[in-house]
Design goal:
Layout (H helix, E strand, L loop, with lengths): L4 E4 L3 H10 L5 E4 L16 E2 L6 H15 L11 E3 L2 E6 L3 H10 L5 E3 L1 H7 L8 E7 L3 E3 L1 H14 L3 E3 L6 E3 L3 E4 L2 E4 L2 E4 L5 H7 L8 E10 L12 E4 L5 E5 L2 E5 L4 E2 L9 H14 L7 E11 L6 E4 L6 E5 L9 H12 L6 H5 L4 H4 L6
Parallel strand pairs: 1-2, 1-13, 2-9, 5-15, 13-21
Antiparallel strand pairs: 3-8, 4-8, 5-7, 6-7, 10-11, 11-12, 14-17, 14-18, 14-19, 15-16, 16-17, 20-21
Bound molecules: flavin-adenine dinucleotide.
Flavin-adenine dinucleotide (FAD) binds next to helix 1, strand 14 and strand 19.
Length: about 375
Amino acid sequence: MDADFLVIGAGIAGASAAFELSKQGRVIMLEREDQPGYHTTGRSAALFTETYGNATIRALTRASRGFLSAPPDGFSASPLLAPRGVLTYAAADRHTAFAAALAEYGEHVREIDMQRAAALFPPLDRAVARYAHYEADAMDMDVHAILQGFLKGFRARGGVLHTGVRIARIAPGWKVDAGATTFAAPVLVNAAGAWADEVARLAGVPTIGLVPKRRTVLMFEPPAGARIDAWPLAIDVDETCYVKPDAGRLLASPADETPSPPTDAQPEDYDIALAIDRLQHCTTLKVGRVTHKWAGLRSFVADKTMVAGEAPGAPGFFWAAGQGGYGIQTSPAMGRVVAALATGRAIPADIADQGVSAAALDPARLR
Ligand SMILES: Cc1cc2nc3c(=O)[nH]c(=O)nc-3n(C[C@H](O)[C@H](O)[C@H](O)COP(=O)(O)OP(=O)(O)OC[C@H]3O[C@@H](n4cnc5c(N)ncnc54)[C@H](O)[C@@H]3O)c2cc1C
């Protein structure tokens, strides 16, 4: 089967790229699982914050806000963003880190006193937390609606998604041998998440040193009678633990970053216990029955910036990888960046104006 573009991986990186590329030509997307979004995309904390990640990540996030706030007609029947807010707190001995964060994120956050912090997030343990700042514009994202919106738009323009695909070989040109079927296109986009380096190896393309890191999440019942819906996401300044409301329950993570081979990540008992211990140290919350738990892989390259652009020495092989812990909130801008680079165009001006350069994303920087 022939197309203009082959996209490998139907997580948010592949879906957003396919959405944009389908405006330029025929796109075939290949997914190994039976459903899109099964791996990292389906396992996130669903937070949009402009104070997370390095300068390029924050620029990509800023550049994505407009799309997520006002998506194109027909993209989604419901809003993609809902107010949440982020409360960051610090103990007395973490003042230096707190002041540095405040200085770096100045325009997005403001320092608040502990009375206000406790009003926003009543379980804050004021014996531990001494400083706080608040990002009022941080939002919850409807990740399912975002992913489905990209897929719907891609299909509406004639894009075809094949699921359950087992790739055996990838030959330059690019020809993807998947058993009974061969898929071919002059441009291939590698959006295989934690497996992106494995896909590169299948194609004989130099890898980018991608390291998948496991992060664990648990959900539990809130305190009886607590009105949690308006609580912000609460996180300590060193990102060792966070908690936020999620559909009537509380979602928490020990913010673990354990290197892992690419796999169907599962939560470890140790990390669940660590989350509970840290949460009960910084807040007055008591974790009773854990109602759900899961883990996902956040994949990073050395500088923790995403990778987009043509692989050195492999014409037509483009990366869309290294989405780390911010792949959903940056997906509208990243989809446009990947599509622009894969069709020989410059990064769109509105995204470049935010401070995103092709050099910062270029796979060649990782050689
Ligand atoms: C606990 C946790 C919390 C997070 N919180 C947030 C958050 O609040 N905000 C935010 O923006 N981001 C967050 N993230 C990060 C975000 O989820 C990721 O950056 C994003 O989902 C990565 O998307 P992806 O498409 O690169 O990867 P994936 O969703 O993993 O998609 C890659 C796809 O490629 C497929 N694939 C792999 N190999 C092959 C192959 N050989 N052939 C065909 N298909 C293949 C896989 O099956 C998979 O479906 C969080 C992540 C975790 C784990």
